[in-house]
Design a protein that fits this description.
The structure holds two protein chains of two kinds. Chain A is an all-beta fold. Chain A is 0% helix and 58% strand. In chain A, the strands form two sheets. In chain A, strands 2, 4, 5, 9, 10 and 11 form a six-stranded mixed sheet that branches. Chain A has a five-stranded antiparallel sheet with strand order 1-3-8-7-6, with no helix packed on it. Chain A is globular and about 40 Å long. The model of chain A has no long low-confidence stretch (mean pLDDT 94). Chain B is mostly beta strands. In chain B, 0% of the residues lie in helices and 55% in strands. In chain B, strands 2, 4, 5, 6, 9, 10 and 11 form a seven-stranded mixed sheet that branches. A four-stranded antiparallel sheet of chain B has the order 1-3-8-7, with no helix packed on it. In chain B, strand 7 and strand 8 form a beta hairpin. At the A-B interface, strand 5 and strand 10 of A face strand 4, strand 5 and strand 10 of B.
Chain lengths: 112, 111
């Protein structure tokens, strides 16, 4: 019940296209859903996050769409650029639990 | 630079040995979190300390232990190392109400 399932495992998108990564969760106690971006040799860096009381959050080219009834959320990267090539992780956190439960990650490659 | 400092960056050691990984949180952050990243298990929460006290525990093996010192730096001790302990170990810190900030990690290789 603690799991966060992420898909796809890998994704190749042409420059300028839209990258979409999906996550699903079981635990309805999760109340914070961040997305992290990780480059090789670096730690995960917070990209964007959402709480379940909103259905969408946009920051620049990055948008989280959240569907509470389906227990799903997704990351959309508009106008994808080669510099976006990285591994992306979704996660969930239970309020007060002070720990993130991560998805398995998606390796995104943006072809120039 | 995220502000979370981890040392060493790389560590190679033999099975059965013991190692210590070190983390300094961002200035002003009282919490330290340890995560393990491996190919088969992904990113897994190990343990959290807040101002010197253990606050949350995850999938941390009994062979592993951690502590947080008065200057807020933390150490993760891994003993009786096995090949399967080879992984990236990340430390993170957090300001209340904000997201986690991760360090660049320590890559542990057990041979």
């Amino acid at each position: 019940q603690q799991q966060v399932k992420q898909s796809p495992q890998s994704l190749i998108v042409q420059k300028g296209g839209i990258s979409i990564i999906n996550c699903a969760y079981e635990n309805t106690a999760f109340d914070y859903f961040p997305w992290y971006q990780q480059f090789p040799g670096k730690g995960p860096a917070l990209l964007i996050a959402i709480r379940p009381d909103v259905s969408e959050k946009k920051e620049g080219r990055f948008t989280i769409s959240f569907n509470k009834s389906a227990k799903q959320f997704s990351l959309h990267i508009m106008d994808s650029q080669p510099g976006d090539s990285a591994t992306y992780f979704c996660a969930g956190e239970i309020q007060g639990a002070q720990k993130l439960v991560f998805g398995q990650g998606t390796r995104l490659t943006i072809n120039p | 630079d995220s502000g979370v400092t981890q040392t060493p960056k790389h560590l190679i050691t033999a099975t059965g040995q013991r190692v210590t990984l070190r983390c300094s949180p961002r200035s002003g952050d009282l919490s330290v979190y340890w995560y393990q990243q491996s190919l088969d298990q992904g990113l897994q929460f190990l343990i959290q300390y807040y101002n010197g006290e253990e606050r949350a525990k995850g999938n941390i093996l009994e062979r592993f232990s951690a502590q947080q010192f008065p200057d807020l730096h933390s150490e993760l001790n891994l003993s009786s190392l096995e090949l399967g302990d080879s992984a990236l170990y990340f430390c993170a810190s957090r300001q209340w109400g904000y997201g986690y900030t991760f360090g660049s990690g320590t890559r542990l290789t057990v041979v």
